[in-house]
Amino acid sequence: MTVTSKEQPELATQFPAPRLRMTGSERFNRLDMKVSPYLYVAPFFIIFGLTGLFPMLYTAFISVHEWHLIKGNQGFVGFENFSSVLGQPNFWKSLGNTFSIFVLSSIPQLIAAVLIAAALDANLRAKTFWRLGVLMPYVVTPVAVSLIFGKLFADQSGLVNALLAVVNQNPVGWHVDPLAAHFAIATMVNFRWTGYNTLIILAAMQAIPRDLYEAAIIDGASRVRRFFFVTIPMIRPTLIFMVLTSTIGGLQIFDEPKTFDSSGRGGPDQQWMTLTMYLHDMGWGATRDFGRAAAIAWLLFLIVIALAAVNYLIVRLISSEEPGANKRRNTRRTKEVSA
Predict the structure, then answer these.
(1) Residues 274, 108: Cα–Cα separation, whole Å
(2) What is the pTM of this model?
(3) Which domain holds residue 68?
């Protein structure tokens, strides 16, 4: 007896298929597949909540209160701490010093990292030795770096001023002139972080398909043109990442200017006091005003967020213009071929 297709739904309703019971191991496996992804990512969110989110929210709570290190909470004051900080000349001076050191360190640092990474990406002998040598300054502690560079940039008996005297140049007051102090501190920052950025950029360069370089060589492109028209476009996402991280780290610089001299106050006239040093001095210095220190911390946070947003918008603008540019380029080539 054959069952037609019209009779199959009727039979299915009259004789439903028996439901199989799930065993305990099958239930556990199904539950494990649903819960395991959340358990794997839970430690990150727990640690971030304890060490990142909670301190940030608690700092926001302190910033709107009159809070002293010894006296504790003295009551709600609203945005009075923010207005008081914005009215201090030292805040604007420290902000200017921070941006000056940031520009003098980040731009040369990234340029040097790209060039060194390009050299290490070539066929060099003892590649491991050179890569380890590039990374060694990053391992050195900031205090040791400050001691070394403090001797190099000493005003009276520094090695840099001694070399300037050899070429009949006047000595530089590294601890007096603000621009000279910013340059010396930026040199310390570049010494420590160039190798770290180099290895990240080198990893991006090694991920570039070698077929692109072979095609460029066949087309007759020189090494310089291959670098600018193949390497740089292919590592653009990594460069954007390095710019963003350098911006965040450069605005939070503390160790190098703090240990640039023995006083740790940013110079006799605060020539190289950064925003984080001003925050530290406000919270743990003579005033011990935690409310204003928290307000400075939140102002710094907002500045970092604003610069990150500007970087994002610039990158998005560049990315949105690229397809149109490629389309116009392809259209022009098509017209040239058809002509």
Answers:
(1) 20
(2) 0.79
(3) 28-80
